[in-house]
Amino acid sequence: MFKRLPAVALVLSLAACTTTSPDVVQRGQAQRLANVQDATVLSVRPVTVDGSQSGVGAVTGGVLGGIAGSTRSSGREQAAIGVIGAVAGAVVGNVIERNATREEAVEILLQLRNGERRAIVQAKAGETFVAGDAVVLVTTDGRTRVTRAPAGLQPAPTRPAPVQSAPRS
Question: 33-50+103-148, what's its fold?
């Protein structure tokens, strides 16, 4: 049991490396110019970001299960138990990875100054938002995060999005 503990710890630590937190900026996003838009929060609701299944957990679990199973007997039985151990280990490793990378998050519905509405999901962080809050959307390399607007910035007016008229025939 204790021989498998370092491998399980490795899987969990690798799985913990991913996040959707707006408080964590990826190294590649540092010192890059970002696009900033003003917006107003329309609503916020809690959601769960499903855990990842990169295969690291399944492979690690499969290897550990295969080793553990194959050491239990000898001959033909050893191979069969090794295969069963590998399959069971892969299933358990996959479940561990998925649960370890699951995140509690929020879906934030926003209204931009031009009237367009957008929604973004990000991990719960140090800031909490309520309807009517003035916020800014910071977009870098296609990834957007919502953060509280600087003091004194007025919320974007909440007006309906412009209606597209049908082309005339």
Answer: OB fold (Dihydrolipoamide Acetyltransferase, E2P) (2.40.50)
